[in-house]
Amino acid sequence: MARLRAGQAIIEGLLAESVEYIFGLVGTTTNSIVTELPGRTDIKFLDTRHEEGAAFMAYGYARASGKPAACVTTSGPGSINLLTGISLAYKGRAPVIVIGGDTAQEYIYRDGAQAFDLVNLFKPVTKLSLEVNQTERIPEMIQYAFRHALSGKQGPVFLDIPRDLIDGQTIEANIQAPESYRAVNGRVEGDAQAIQQAVELLRSAKRPVLLAGGGVVDSEASDDAVELAELLDMTLVPSYGHNDAIPNSHRLYIGPPGGRGSGEAAIAINQADVILALGTRINQGSTSWNYNVVNRETKIIQVDIDSQEIGRNYPVAVGMVGDAKAVAQQLLRALREEFPEGRPNPEWRASTESLAQQRRTRLDAEKDITGDPMMPQRVYPELSKVLPPDCMVTLDAGVSAGLAYDRLAFEMPRTMFNYAGQGGLGMGLCVGLGTKLGRPDRPAISIQGDGGFLYTSQELNTAVRWSIPLVSIVLNNRCHGAEKAQQQRLFAGKYIGVNLESPRFDKLAEVYGAKGYYVERPEDIADTVRDALAQNGPSVIEIPIEEYFPPAAPLPGSSR
Fold first, then answer.
1. Torsion sign across C-alpha atoms 354, 360, 361, 363
2. Positive or negative: CA dihedral 379, 381, 383, 385
3. Which of 61, 77, 119, 328 could form a disulfide with 69 if both were Cys (CB 3.0 to 4.6 A apart)?
4. What angle do CA 440, 444, 445 make, to 5 degrees?
């Protein structure tokens, strides 16, 4: 057991969990932590220009790498500024450990400077939020934080540490290996009886659909999901926002569901007699929780690591708490015993392939759309020509970026990143930077509108200082598109606060020291993106586009 400075013990506790980056800003209450980092190469303090950017980057890093990230911020507004980004980590199942340096204990409950109840502020957006109450307990509390963040459905944890517990303090610290205080690489299998019930349903299914959720990505179960689908000719549909759960080029893939997705996927879901919802809570974006999408007669087999999600949004025929990969392998073993060569379902397979072709025909027709400025749909076939299969794509909130859901193909897990039901504009740039830090071996782009980009564009400075080669594509329609569409449809075109005037984003990039591009013709997009991907630092591509408000997707109707 070594005698360590309190700040040093915090750093060593993070290192024990292989934390590579600490994202944040310096502050008087955390200097005892961050000043332990100069000269170290095994862990880095990545300083951002705003705490929100730090939280978004930590989310992107954790989701791309599959490893935990950390944020360190100071008291009061310094930590409060993290809330938007940490709420994304909570919605998006990202293990981010937040260490908030707080005011000294003597100022708490006395309305001291920058004294707020941070623990309760963070409770709704974290798996666990607590205050360290003794210096000696710092290593224990860090272990406690990681145990919660990395167990079950992963997510962020907030640790509040008053400055008087770390400033000038030393402790006897026993920094332990993770396997000594939490389960490492454990996979929860499904109940054997439930597995048999699921097999019986799948065996008799005539129109089966496999809905692959975020749990498939988290547990690295994409190959297992594909094997299951191929065994029974199940239609492959990712849950909303998780297009990368299954390879989009597969013959059984029919597109993503939801209002920004494929109408063909909604038809398949509606026609299904059995849905295997693997690693998904069946989120709102997938079905709008509407029985015009999921037929009332459909039998649902739901698998999720969180018991609270089973049957939460739809009644289930079979519910299983378990890891998506472990349960998928159980199902595969049981089904192969009965069908060693698989059970062909030619009629349903033909229906699936017909719908998939219908989708391809619909999207191919968009290549002929003309306009000056160009219509946003024209951007995506050009991007598809140049983006490599392992390219990580971060999609900001907003109408123009949202068109990517049905128009870009994802072939590998951990290549699609979005706002995960949290909906916060401005996450695109920062999350994209985080993904590139998490997987520097992969190319990375972010796609956002002009409104979203200016939420966090100051982090271009962070990208330049840290030489992070992210390609940021700004689709500039000169408005807040989703809100303008709503004001047009529901409020008789009484526009307020939706029309925007922005700087030239390519010029803004150059001011920050990044590479800037301005593209007005569809035929120039692929070469420009190719050049940007070859840069050693960050770049911004501005593409002026026409306003486009997608029509509301019709629901498929509840009758078969």
1. positive
2. negative
3. 61
4. 155
- Give the contacts of 324 (CB within 8 A, at least 6 positions apart): 213, 215, 216, 218, 219, 221, 224, 225, 278, 279, 303, 305
How far is residue 414 from each of residues 63, 362, 447, 505, 544, measured CA to CA in Å? 7, 27, 16, 28, 29
* DSSP structure class, residue 188: P
* Short-list 19, 126, 9, CA closest to 79: 126
Amino acid making up residue 135: T
In the chain, the percentage of residues whose pLDDT exceeds 70 is 98
Cβ proximity of 510 and 520 under 8 Å: no
Question: pLDDT by residue (tens digit) across 476-520?
Answer: 999 999 899 999 999 999 999 999 999 999 999 999 999 999 999
Separation of alpha carbons 463 and 46, rounded Å? 10
- Greatest Cα-to-Cα distance within the chain, rounded to the nearest angstrom: 73
Asked whether the CA dihedral 254, 256, 257, 258 is positive or negative, the reply is negative
Q: With 80 as the cut, is the pLDDT of residue 317 above it?
A: yes
Q: Tokens 């932590």 correspond to what residue?
A: 33
Mean pLDDT for 73-79 is 96
- Average of per-residue pLDDT across 300-318: 96
